[in-house]
Automatic annotation (TrEMBL):
Residues 1-80 are annotated as: Disordered. It comes from Nocardioides ganghwensis. Residues 15-34 have a biased composition (Low complexity). Residues 1-14 have a biased composition (Basic and acidic residues). This is Uncharacterized protein.
């Protein structure tokens, strides 16, 4: 036998042993079901929107929201 034939025979023997071990092994118990997580807390923007009601809602590039009233006359926005 050549070296490659020996390697192939060893690999096939290991595979057969692993298949036999898997067939003889007892069934694994089912994992317990995780409890349902509570809803995530609201973000700062959402809390500000709920508290004030009518906010501008304009968002800047970093995702912050304007806290001025809806339809404000000021050219700039106040982000928080």
């Amino acid at each position: 036998m050549s070296k490659m034939d020996n390697l192939r025979a060893m690999r096939e023997a290991k595979y057969a042993a692993a298949q036999k071990r898997a067939a003889d092994a007892p069934a694994r118990p089912q994992a317990p079901v995780a409890p349902v997580a509570p809803p995530a807390p609201k973000r700062v923007e959402e809390r500000a929107a709920d508290a004030a009601g009518d906010l501008c809602g304009h968002r800047n590039m970093s995702g912050r929201t304007c806290t001025r009233e809806r339809g404000h006359a000021a050219k700039s926005h106040r982000y928080s």
